[in-house]
Amino acid sequence: MTQADRPPSTLAELTTMRVGGPAARFVTATTEAELIDAVRETDEAGEPLLVLAGGSNLLISDDGFPGTVVIVRTSGIEVPDASACGGVTVTVAAGEVWDDVVAHACEQGWSGTEALSGIPGSTGATPVQNVGAYGQEVAQTIAQVRVWDREEQRVRTLFADDLHFTYRHSVLKDSMVGPAARAGAVTPRHVVLSVTFSLRPTELSQPVAYAALADGLGVELGSRVPLQEAREAVLAQRRNRGMVLDPADHDTWSCGSFFTNPILSAGDFETLRARAVERWGPDGPVPPQFTAPDAMVKTSAAWLIDRAGFSKGHGLPGPAALSTKHTLALTNRGDASAADLVALAQEVRAGVADAFGVSLVNEPVLVGLSL
């Protein structure tokens, strides 16, 4: 465990949104033992703790963080078993850059994560919110997650069934709202140490499950294509939406999708549809409808935002604006503060609630902030 030789002056340097004030202390952990020690020592001292790796799912206050920030820089990709039930078991350290892991899997001929190409952040963050895109979720391939349990003060292994994955959710994310969070902690009860995936040894992708991706590839839904072709097609889709990090492109100075797609009861969705008819008449736009578990209905946050009057680039020429490529992304146009971005998020959320009666939920974790 080391105090960084040249620690960042602010948390803005460690997040993809590029906002956030200073911290009381920065510690960099390059091994699993260092990570556990840093977390344990900070907890024993009773200090506030923020564990940060890729910084792609955080919006941090302009006041910064009044405690210790542990920067996760652990590394390693191991293949303990390449023959289990015809699959490949791959264990990845929490600090590994996620897109590097996906690229490596495609190069090795391991399918199951190719549609998750280009997603920023670290591997350790992927199970927390069940990262997903273009028809894939990490829940489909995660076999187990090793964590440091801050309450029990021990390393634990959580298997897929223990994690209770749902859309953009897991038991790891649930622990953010437990007793520790109410006491002021920012990190969850479980600090991810490594993630083990069960991938398939094949040079072809898993069946293409997203219409726009299939169109880009020129194939039918359900087709399988060479892994590298699938990866490049996903990256092209994400670039078109400003979702591949590029320091020169302010549309990528974001947390990705800022709001999750609402999941409504059948009755609430009918109310939403009635609001749309009231707004535009029976031949007007219809809210997208997708089947969700437990007889629920998922609809599109991007559709709601756009139809509530917030088009791409809304907020320009101000310091914070919706992406010019994708209405779901709130972006820093170069010198935005966290307060600017919170004000924009509040404006969008209030506008959607007023237009459609649906309350949008933020996807990134807010540190020292609230909507």
UniProtKB/TrEMBL annotation:
Its cofactor is FAD. It catalyses: UDP-N-acetyl-alpha-D-muramate + NADP(+) = UDP-N-acetyl-3-O-(1-carboxyvinyl)-alpha-D-glucosamine + NADPH + H(+). Its main location: cytoplasm. It is found in: Cytoplasm. InterPro entries: FAD-bd_PCMH (IPR016166), FAD-bd_PCMH-like_sf (IPR036318), FAD-bd_PCMH_sub1 (IPR016167), FAD-bd_PCMH_sub2 (IPR016169), MurB (IPR003170), MurB_C (IPR011601), MurB_C_sf (IPR036635), Oxid_FAD_bind_N (IPR006094). Pathway: Cell wall biogenesis; peptidoglycan biosynthesis. Coiled coil: none annotated. Residues 19-202 form the FAD-binding PCMH-type domain. GO terms for molecular function: UDP-N-acetylmuramate dehydrogenase activity. HAMAP family: MurB. Belongs to the MurB family. Cell wall formation. This is UDP-N-acetylenolpyruvoylglucosamine reductase. It comes from Ornithinimicrobium cryptoxanthini. The gene is murB.
